[in-house]
Design goal:
Length: 747
């Protein structure tokens, strides 16, 4: 079987959890890499980058005509807003090719203060249909990373219904939950997956009435066999997951997918599979590519650690542990020691191995050795090799230059001399008088002059775009041209202030800080508040004075407000559009929007009243401003903005203080902690080893499986805020309640 040839290949986008991984990705064929700084990215558990390292990565990538996307894809608390602005200021100075975001507040900040930054919507935004993609475009986003549980057929339909760039995941670890919709880790201890701190509860062991297993532990995704389909669809970017992985993993996976992307021969897939086999990982799967794949993506009988089993812990001491090796290990290998419970174990790089008391570089299968570490090693743990030793590129990294400031030049050459005008600086032109001869042969060319002036010999500055005009045929000896180039750059370096290149960014930061001091100054204590109650189909509102809320599938004459489904996959869009139209024709005008697609479906109707609702996150005052802006250009009346459910008490108060917009609390209910299209091989009640109880609900209409806690979330009553009671999965006045993160610091 042969494949068509396509003129434009998708971009191959690779993870960079460290500078060595980023350089490796570029060297082995990635068109772009994505990387994060130490905070505000969805993989805060990896090494991540300092600003200097990010500068080096961007400089290296741009030198090789590759791209770098900086991840800002977490939710932001009010107390962090100024720090986020300061970090965005520093990032903007580095001229990344895009910033990947989740938080609507970060989007507001970029559009209003750093508008030259290109914005991509992270998969954490949970965009899963063409309506959501198209609305993201209206908000100023240029590319959407689609939700990972969208099927291949749905991707095809989305692509047919949007002109925005689409990015899809093709390889790596999968989350069991829909992206941006998981409270599981946060509920179990305040470490939020929506803030890059997930403790991976999906990989733990759970018990049901009839069995036990790793009910939420997914296999890894591998898409080698459908790369040509993505090429045919003109998907803009194919993304490899793995910012927690090391350079050896990145090298192999990038090489494999580069092999398939660059070939139309079916044998390339087999060759790529052999390359992938060199990496340590979980069992491969199709992920969520098809309806049939939903049933096979979970592997409940196998502990969900990624890596190659390498040993068993025999004895634990304060300075390390003894292990019986089932696979060879080497100094420099990275390992994780996994406890039997399935909880995440400690990971570290091996620096010392002792065999019979002697230091060794390598130990082989079947030997008993001692591995030194200061980590807390679980007894009876299993040792998994998650990264192989290899060159760490230390010398290369130490010698990499930082990114230089680009100087655009307009060079004008006449027989009377040379004038050079720096285009992107408020700086006087440089000129030098010279009597050049008429060229009888070999006249100076625009290309020759541009190439000469591109050489700056500076560690701080490099030539950007160079425009050259030559008046007539002029002879300029090579030695003279070199001398004039040196004279210009000497003059430039002596007279330019390096800070001028950062002025746009620093001015933007100061403008933001000035504006931010006035946020919330018109905050009024006389805000009109109320109570809304989401009730089950066929049940009555237990609070007669409260607003009755129903879903789009069961509204009645007594309904005052309709909540849209949080998920509406592409095949269901027309039905949801039709239901909305019918509701509006019957006179219903108040809607709760739970995902960005809802704004797009309601946008054509006038007089609509809008409240944002879980799981659409608003965690800071800038996000609230973005919602108000959205409501404005959609011509909606903004009723309430529901604050993000994970926030602690102090952050809710901070948010309340910084906005004069109407706010609402998710006050009482049983929110889903996890929502997935995967088939979960358990039902009804399950427990974790710590006796934390959960309830599984499989929705036959949507095909989704939802996980709830046995406990009901009950918030505090904050003055000046409306309240939302969610009785769709809870009874009034249940006694087994939790205040979630309200009394703790959300990590």
């Amino acid at each position: 079987m042969s494949h068509k040839k396509y003129n434009k290949k998708p971009e191959l986008l690779a993870p960079a959890g460290s500078l060595s991984a980023g350089l490796t990705a570029i060297d082995y064929g990635a068109d772009a890499v994505y990387a994060g700084l130490s905070k505000f990215n969805a993989r805060e558990r990896t090494e991540n980058f300092t600003l200097d390292e990010m500068s080096k990565l961007i400089a290296y990538a741009h030198k090789h005509e590759k791209k770098v996307y900086v991840t800002f894809n977490t939710l932001i608390k009010e107390s962090e807003v100024t720090e986020v602005a300061e970090q965005l200021c520093e990032v903007s100075k580095l001229n990344p090719d895009a910033v990947i975001i989740q938080d609507l507040g970060v989007l507001y900040m970029i559009k209003n203060y750093f508008p030259w930054l290109t914005v991509h919507a992270s998969t954490q935004m949970g965009i899963h249909n063409s309506a959501g993609v198209n609305f993201a475009g209206k908000m100023g986003i240029s590319r959407v990373v689609l939700e990972r549980q969208v099927t291949l057929n749905e991707i095809k339909d989305i692509k047919n219904n949007t002109s925005l760039e689409l990015e899809v995941f093709i390889h790596g670890a999968l989350c069991c939950s829909m992206s941006g919709n998981c409270l599981f880790s946060s509920w179990l201890g305040g470490f939020s997956g929506n803030r890059g701190k997930c403790k991976q509860p999906c990989r733990r062991l759970y018990q049901s009435d009839t069995s036990s297993g790793y009910f939420f532990s997914t296999k890894d995704l591998c898409s080698l066999d459908v790369i040509n389909v993505y090429k045919e669809l003109r998907i803009s970017s194919l993304k490899i997951e793995g910012r927690l992985r090391k350079a050896d993993y990145v090298r192999n996976v990038v090489s494999a997918y580069r092999t398939v992307l660059d070939s139309d021969d079916d044998s390339a897939v087999d060759k790529a599979r052999q390359i992938i086999l060199r990496t340590s990982g979980r069992k491969w799967s199709e992920g969520f590519r098809t309806q049939e794949a939903f049933r096979n993506v979970i592997e409940p009988d196998v502990i969900g650690i990624s890596g190659q089993a390498a040993g068993k812990v025999l004895e634990v001491r304060n300075d390390g542990f003894t292990t019986l090796l089932t696979s060879s290990i080497h100094i420099g290998d990275r390992v994780r020691v996994q406890p039997p419970s399935g909880e995440e174990g400690p990971a570290f790089t091996i620096t010392d191995i002792l065999l019979n008391g002697n230091l060794e570089k390598k130990c082989y299968k079947g030997t008993i050795c001692f591995i030194k570490t200061d980590r807390n090693i679980p007894r009876q743990g299993i040792v998994y090799k998650i990264g192989e030793s290899g060159g760490d590129l230390v010398s290369v990294i130490n010698n990499l230059p930082l990114q230089k400031h680009k100087v655009d030049l307009n060079i004008k050459v006449t027989r009377n001399g040379i004038r050079v005008i720096p285009l992107n600086l408020n700086m006087a032109e440089w000129s030098i008088a010279e009597n050049f001869a008429v060229a009888l042969k070999n006249p100076a060319t625009e290309v020759q002059i541009a190439e000469e002036f591109a050489s700056t010999r500076s560690e701080l500055y490099e030539a950007g775009e160079i425009l050259v005009s030559v008046e007539g045929k002029i002879f300029i000896p090579s030695s003279v041209l070199k001398a004039k180039r040196r004279d210009f750059w000497t003059y430039f370096i002596e007279h330019v202030d390096e800070k001028v290149f950062d002025k746009k960014s620093t001015d933007a930061l100061e403008n933001f800080k000035t504006d931010y001091t006035s946020f919330g100054v018109n905050n009024s204590d006389s805000v009109e508040t109320g109570i809304s109650v989401l009730v089950r189909e066929g049940e009555n509102n237990p609070f007669p004075e409260a607003i009755t809320t129903h879903t789009l599938d069961d509204f009645t004459a007594g309904t005052k407000e309709i909540i849209l489904p949080e998920y509406c996959f592409e095949y269901d869009l027309k039905r949801i559009e039709r239901k909305i139209r019918i509701a509006i024709e019957k006179g219903f005008i108040a809607f709760r929007v739970t995902s960005l697609y809802g704004f797009e479906l309601l946008r054509g109707y006038k007089g609509i009243k809008i409240t944002t609702s879980y799981p659409l996150p608003v965690s800071n005052s800038l996000a609230a401003k973005e919602v108000r802006k959205v409501s404005g250009f959609c011509h909606f009346k903004l009723q309430n903005i529901q604050t993000w459910i994970e926030l602690e008490k102090s952050e809710i108060l901070n948010l309340r203080q910084k906005t004069d917009l109407p706010l609402e609390l998710y006050y009482y209910g049983r929110p889903h902690l996890l929502i997935t299209r995967a088939y979960i091989p358990a039902k009804n009640e399950i427990k974790e080893s710590k006796d934390e109880g959960f309830i599984l609900n499989k929705d036959l209409k949507s095909g989704l499986c939802l996980l709830y806690s046995e406990k009901v979330f009950k918030s505090f009553n904050f003055e000046g805020m409306s309240l939302f009671f969610d009785l769709s999965n809870a009874e009034v006045d249940e006694q087994n309640v939790s205040s979630f993160n309200l009394d703790f610091t959300l990590q």
